[in-house]
Write a structure and sequence with these properties.
OB fold (Dihydrolipoamide Acetyltransferase, E2P); 3 domains; 9 strands; globular
Length: 230
């Protein structure tokens, strides 16, 4: 059941438009997740999947595709996303993709933003789960010392934080990267003020270009490589 939930979360992130995508049932088979997309938003989902095939998809769609493909590879399985006419829309090579050289894992400093949704454990390094803010809701599994975990727990289910530390990354066969372990060495709470008030504060600072920006959300998403609905 836990693995099924991971696949369903990956599929939801892949399709996007979470308010218009609905789970219907499981059909007989290994895992056959039947879903429905509201009629008015089908063109958005179709364009999103088409951009994956063309290689110019938004970053969150590419990340979801890699996530599903890596899960299938780890389960020694393959998968396809089909339309109602059983036409293949997206294929996942999974366990059948060509084996690449094993480069091992690499350590690299980095940071993650998210809301703490789990803090606790028995070891000296305490598990901390950070859930991203946004439609994908990806969860980063991190660890930290008990002292840091105790401070992070103050923001549990409440406020986003930015966690800094060092991660161990593994190069996958599809050229993606999988985070194996991330040790938090420090963090800071993030300002959860609405975007409008943040932009207003920026515009009050002399000598910056935000006073001329009429659509700040579009600018931010363009910088991040994300798609935006007009």
């Amino acid at each position: 059941m836990a693995r099924l939930a991971e696949y369903m979360a990956g599929l939801a992130a892949l399709l996007g438009n979470e308010k218009s995508v609905h789970f219907l049932r499981l059909d007989p088979g290994s895992i056959e997740i039947v879903h429905r997309v509201d009629l008015e938003d089908r063109p958005k989902v179709e364009d999103r999947l088409a951009s994956l095939r063309l290689g110019n998809a938004p970053a969150d769609a590419v990340k979801a595709h890699h996530l599903i493909d890596n899960m299938l590879a780890n389960d020694n399985a393959t998968g396809v996303l089909t339309s109602g006419q059983d036409l293949v829309v997206i294929a996942f090579t999974g366990g059948k993709r060509p084996k690449s050289l094993d480069y091992g894992t690499f350590s690299q400093p980095g940071s993650f933003d998210g809301i703490p949704i789990k803090v606790g454990g028995l070891g000296e390094l305490v598990p901390i789960h950070l859930q991203e803010i946004g439609p994908a809701l990806f969860v980063h599994n991190c660890v930290a010392t008990r002292a840091i975990a105790r401070d992070v727990a103050k923001y549990l289910f409440q406020s986003p934080i930015r966690a800094h530390g060092e991660g161990r990354w593994k190069r996958e066969a599809n050229d993606g990267w999988t985070l194996k372990r991330f040790v938090i060495t420090s963090f800071e709470p993030l300002d959860d003020a609405p975007l409008e008030s943040v932009v207003a504060r920026l515009r009050d600072i002399d000598g910056n270009g935000w006073r001329d920006v009429t659509r700040p959300l579009k600018v931010l998403r363009d910088i991040r490589g994300e798609e935006i609905t007009p």
